[in-house]
């Protein structure tokens, strides 16, 4: 059986980490693409030189031309710019929208059958625009954010309770901004819903509230620490989990930015919801029944995303 082909558009901090993880997991052969000359080639060679040590078989190559992504099974997009301290993700919209236009054209020409995972920020608006620019079907174009935000939520809970991260299941939906929606009622530790943990006295309400707030601002916390860019290890691991579910038809239920067609009362917009990812891309969207407070939080987050999508339409009238 021929190996799968994974193309990484953008070979910066996340792109390089994606290539390393995809190699270690033997997901397929890997092409790193970037406009910066030498970077994708250098990272490809460096990672390939680690393969004898770690014992993985994967061909790695670097390129500056879109023809290199031809026939890719999975494409992960990180091309663009990250934020620096003092900036919001939304400040990246204008510059990264231009990048999505180029990337979308490249995918349309060379890899129209790929499953595309967008990571570039501001995530929900960028994946919305990328789907339009590429013309690929909506079930094959998704955004990575919910897996990362949920992983942060899970990690903070496991740390607070001093238990294994493996036994913490938590979900964060909505847009990838500070008004994202960590779902307390639907998150569990050892199968016990978080509100019950509070009732049992294992976690204080104040601590839980602080964890929810820290999760919402998780990206900014790393930006403030790194100063030169944003998180890349956990974002790369999150996108690899999505790619693996597609390539191996695992049918995992993951929170991803997906295009809605009536679910949650929305049509055409991209926002973080639980979906099943299998060999057909987004195979199903789960519609969670929210209580009033959750409904209000989700609506607020969706309103932020809608505002950014409107801004994209203003900048690129072809998207309207
Ligand atoms: N969705 C999410 O949860 C997360 C999103 N991000 C976003 O991911 C993006 C990438 O982050 P990093 O890898 O840390 O940034 P980075 O700056 O290390 O890498 C970005 C790469 O894109 C390349 N690039 C720029 N314009 C390009 C173009 N037109 N075509 C091809 N390549 C181009 C640059 O040369 C650079 O190598 C940022 O927008 C960041 O905000 C970061 C973390 C989490
Ligand atoms: O915060 C940022 O700019 C990068 C990002 O989206 C995250 O780490 O969640």
TrEMBL record:
Q: Which CDD domains has this protein been placed in?
A: LDH-like_MDH (cd01339)
Identify the InterPro entries for this entry.
L-lactate/malate_DH, Lactate/malate_DH_C, Lactate/malate_DH_N, Lactate_DH/Glyco_Ohase_4_C, Malate_DH_type3, NAD(P)-bd_dom_sf
Please give the catalytic activity noted in the UniProt record: (S)-malate + NAD(+) = oxaloacetate + NADH + H(+)
Q: Which Pfam families match?
A: Ldh_1_C, Ldh_1_N
Q: Where does substrate bind?
A: 83, 89, 121, 152
Q: In terms of domain of life, where is this protein from?
A: Bacteria
What are its E.C. numbers? 1.1.1.37
The entry's keywords: NAD, Oxidoreductase, Tricarboxylic acid cycle
A Gene Ontology biological process term: tricarboxylic acid cycle
Q: Which residues form the Lactate/malate dehydrogenase C-terminal domain?
A: 148-306
Query: Which intervals hold domain Lactate/malate dehydrogenase N-terminal?
Result: 5-143
Q: Name one GO molecular function term.
A: L-lactate dehydrogenase (NAD+) activity
Q: Where, by residue number, does NAD(+) bind?
A: 10-15, 34, 96, 119-121
Q: Which residues are the active-site ones?
A: 176
Q: Does the keyword tRNA-binding apply?
A: no
Its biological purpose? Catalyzes the reversible oxidation of malate to oxaloacetate.
Against HAMAP family, the record matches this protein to: Malate_dehydrog_3
Q: Which family does it belong to?
A: Belongs to the LDH/MDH superfamily. MDH type 3 family.
Q: What name does this protein carry? A: Malate dehydrogenase
Protein source organism: Methyloraptor flagellatus
């Amino acid at each position: 059986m021929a190996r799968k082909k994974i193309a990484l558009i953008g070979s910066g901090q996340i792109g390089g980490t994606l290539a390393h993880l995809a190699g270690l997991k033997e997901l397929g052969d890997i092409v790193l693409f970037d406009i910066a000359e030498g970077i994708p080639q250098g990272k490809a060679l460096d990672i390939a030189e680690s393969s004898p040590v770690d014992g993985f078989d994967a061909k790695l190559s670097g390129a500056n031309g879109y023809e290199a992504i031809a026939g890719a099974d999975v494409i992960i997009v990180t091309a663009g710019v990250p934020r620096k301290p003092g900036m919001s993700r939304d400040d990246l919209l204008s510059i990264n929208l231009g990048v999505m236009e180029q990337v979308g054209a490249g995918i349309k020409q060379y890899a129209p059958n790929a499953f595309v995972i967008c990571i570039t920020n501001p995530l929900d608006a960028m994946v919305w625009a990328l789907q339009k620019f590429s013309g690929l079907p909506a079930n094959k174009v998704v955004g990575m954010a919910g897996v990362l935000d949920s992983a942060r939520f899970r990690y903070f809970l496991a740390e607070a309770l001093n238990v294994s991260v493996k036994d913490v299941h938590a979900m964060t939906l909505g847009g990838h901004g500070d008004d994202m929606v960590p779902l307390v009622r639907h998150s569990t530790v050892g199968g016990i819903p978080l509100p019950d943990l509070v009732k049992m006295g294992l976690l204080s309400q104040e601590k839980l509230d602080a964890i929810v707030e820290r999760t919402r601002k998780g990206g900014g916390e790393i930006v403030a620490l790194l100063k030169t860019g944003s998180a890349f290890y956990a974002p790369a691991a999150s996108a690899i989990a999505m790619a693996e579910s597609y390539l191996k038809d695992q049918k995992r239920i993951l929170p991803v930015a997906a295009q809605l067609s009536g679910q949650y009362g929305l049509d055409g917009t991209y926002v973080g919801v639980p979906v099943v990812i299998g060999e057909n891309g987004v195979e199903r969207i789960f519609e969670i029944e929210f209580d009033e407070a959750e409904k209000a939080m989700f609506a607020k987050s969706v309103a932020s995303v809608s505002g950014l999508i409107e801004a994209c339409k203003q900048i690129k009238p072809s998207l309207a």
